[in-house]
């Protein structure tokens, strides 16, 4: 069995597939991929007009960029879009599972279908469905390194009021993503590296109104995207930003639950961080 050349770069010449690619972090990943010489970029988004405009801007002689209107909450639509992407651009070498939604509300205020089911479909099931579709080709092709970047959240590491369903979707994402990483490594597919990104709040508009806890400033999209991208290229298992995300995880792990509740609420103000949440309008 041939091995991946150790000096083969990850991005130049690669086919990159990004979900939620029309704006925010997804747009930044697309621009970074184009800048670094990707051979082709597939922009998946429900906003076809915006994705098409971005594709037209980034498309060039070195990099083919195509927009695909995809509702990732629909499993059949994901499967069909994978086929269209492969037919037009080739099998993805790099997959960025970026699409996500948030409903900032008390759990009993969530609509079962519009909020609970849709959040789980987009944030958790869609990355699994999509990865399952493209992974066999990634595993089989050792001509270049493969990368999967799964955008999770610090909300997947700590409970927080008004984020119950979102947190559940990201806890599931983290568990699946890191398990997939281990499975690939242990089964001899080390050329496919999986990175899980766990950021705190990012000023993309998705979390408009949220306040960063103590010592945890709301990150700019540029800073967050750079950290996630560089971690993915390096094949790091988990990237957590800022540093206080790991601190909170450590404290939550060693302190009694009630003691952590007091510190998280009264000292770090984690539990009140979503009190003024409005979200993207």
Automatic annotation (TrEMBL):
Keyword entries, A-Z: Oxidoreductase
Domain of life: Bacteria
Keyword Oxidoreductase applies: yes
Domain Ketoreductase: 14-205
UniProt entry tagged with the keyword Zinc-finger: no
TM spans (from-to): none
Gene3D superfamilies: NAD(P)-binding Rossmann-like Domain
Molecular-function annotations in GO: oxidoreductase activity, acting on the CH-OH group of donors, NAD or NADP as acceptor
Family membership: Belongs to the short-chain dehydrogenases/reductases (SDR) family.
UniProt name for this protein: SDR family NAD(P)-dependent oxidoreductase
Organism: Leucobacter triazinivorans
Lineage: Bacteria, Bacillati, Actinomycetota, Actinomycetes, Micrococcales
């Amino acid at each position: 069995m041939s091995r991946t050349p150790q000096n083969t770069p990850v991005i130049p010449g690669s086919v990159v597939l990004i979900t939620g690619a029309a704006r925010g972090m997804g747009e930044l990943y697309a621009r970074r991929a184009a800048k670094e010489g990707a051979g082709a970029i597939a922009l998946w988004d429900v906003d076809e007009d915006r994705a098409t405009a971005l594709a037209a801007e980034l498309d060039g002689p070195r990099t083919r960029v195509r927009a695909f209107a995809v509702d990732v909450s629909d499993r059949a639509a994901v499967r069909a879009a994978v086929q269209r992407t492969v037919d037009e651009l080739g099998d993805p070498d790099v997959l960025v599972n970026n699409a996500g939604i948030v409903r900032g509300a008390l759990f009993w205020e969530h609509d079962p279908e519009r909020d609970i089911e849709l959040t789980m479909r987009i944030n958790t099931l869609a990355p699994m469905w999509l990865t399952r579709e493209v992974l066999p080709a990634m595993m089989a092709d050792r001509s270049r390194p493969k990368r999967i970047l799964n955008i999770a959240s610090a909300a997947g590491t700590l409970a927080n009021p008004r984020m119950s369903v979102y947190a559940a979707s990201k806890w599931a994402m983290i568990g699946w993503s890191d398990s997939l990483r281990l499975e690939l490594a242990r089964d001899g597919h080390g050329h496919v590296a999986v990175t899980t990104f766990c950021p705190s709040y990012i000023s993309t508009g998705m979390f408009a109104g949220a306040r960063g806890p103590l010592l945890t400033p709301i990150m700019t999209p540029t800073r967050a995207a750079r950290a996630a991208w560089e971690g993915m290229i390096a094949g790091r298992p988990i990237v957590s930003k800022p540093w206080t995300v790991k601190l909170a995880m450590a404290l939550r792990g060693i302190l009694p639950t009630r003691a952590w509740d007091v510190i998280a609420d009264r000292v770090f103000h984690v539990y009140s961080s979503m009190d003024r949440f409005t979200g993207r309008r």
